[in-house]
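Revision sheet: structure tokens.
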Amino acid sequence: MLRNLSIVAAIAATIAIPVSAFAAHVHAHSNVHVNKNVHVNRNVHVNKNVHVDRNVHVNKNVHVNNLVVGNRYHGGVYFGNVGRYWHGQWYGYGVGSCWASTPDGYYVWIC
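Predicted:
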């Protein structure tokens, strides 16, 4: 009942608003002044003197690891940079007593 009453009230309010009120409101705002005199600045300064540093130092003394997986180096076997299982326990690469560090900075398996 309340729903039907609110629908009837909404329809009655819509009909009661005069159409001329909308027309007067639109007419009052349709007379808007537009400024068509726009100044465009075409004098743009471009800096073409860009400094490029061509004296770049390149370190050519890069150590490349040319080790072969499974070969013996420095008293151990190189297995790459992955961990190993030994007697049911996982040893991460370089972690634990079964890994030995070499002078070149890599690890070999000694167990």
